[in-house]
Specification:
Elements lengths: L1 H12 L6 H17 L1 H8 L7 H12 L13 H15 L4 E6 L2 H20 L1 H8 L3 E5 L4 E5 L4 E7 L11 E4 L7 H7 L6
Parallel strand pairs: 1-4, 1-5
Antiparallel strand pairs: 2-3, 3-4
């Protein structure tokens, strides 16, 4: 939050417009900062002021950990946070592919429709709502796959069922939704590098 205060002070003191080189340096600095602090990105850049402190901690750890396992009771926003972190990855890492595996196709479709399209792009985040309303984020529902495409930076989210056919997909981030219901042999087949 100190960096955000400094940014606001610097904006008030600025006398001349920034040069192209200064703008490029600023973009690099902020991108690096937000890639290390997903919680601050969600709260201040995406405008999600209503997140609880424990949710911000979860988002932060999802951003810095190679492996993250979340086991919570009902009503804590697991699917919502999973969707949010998939969006953050796509926004901060251009041309990335996030694969979310769900136990069934209807479960996958429900998660995208309810959590991503209706909640995240429907008003929880003013920035995501703007991108969605102006056609920069597109949702696709088909028999083969459910996907979210970020047309401005080439990123995408694929939500696939946990079946053998999903094993060939490459991903920047792999998320197992409801992993406790998954069969171990399918998890091993989909992500052999991550199994112990």
């Amino acid at each position: 939050t100190e960096l955000i205060r400094e940014r606001k002070k610097a904006k008030l003191k600025r006398q001349r417009p920034k040069t192209k080189e200064e703008l490029e340096e600023q973009v690099i600095d902020w991108t690096d900062f937000y890639r290390k602090n997903w919680d601050i990105y969600a709260k201040y850049e995406l405008g999600m002021e209503s997140l609880h402190i424990f949710q911000l901690f979860m988002i932060y750890f999802m951003g810095i950990c190679n492996y993250f396992f979340l086991m919570c009771g009902r009503g804590t926003g697991k699917s919502f946070l999973t969707s949010l972190c998939a969006f953050i990855t796509c926004l901060l890492y251009p041309k990335s592919t996030v694969v979310i595996t769900a136990t069934t196709k209807p479960t996958a479709r429900k998660m995208v429709k309810n959590k991503m399209e209706k909640e995240l792009c429907g008003g929880f985040s003013p920035k995501l709502k703007y991108l969605y309303d102006n056609g920069y984020i597109k949702f696709k529902y088909s028999e083969e796959e459910t996907s979210v495409n970020f047309l401005f930076n080439g990123s995408k989210i694929l939500v696939l069922p946990e079946v053998e056919a999903s094993a060939g997909e490459r991903a920047t981030l792999l998320i197992f939704e409801e992993v406790r219901l998954s069969k171990q042999n399918i998890i091993n087949r989909i992500s052999p590098a991550y199994t112990c």
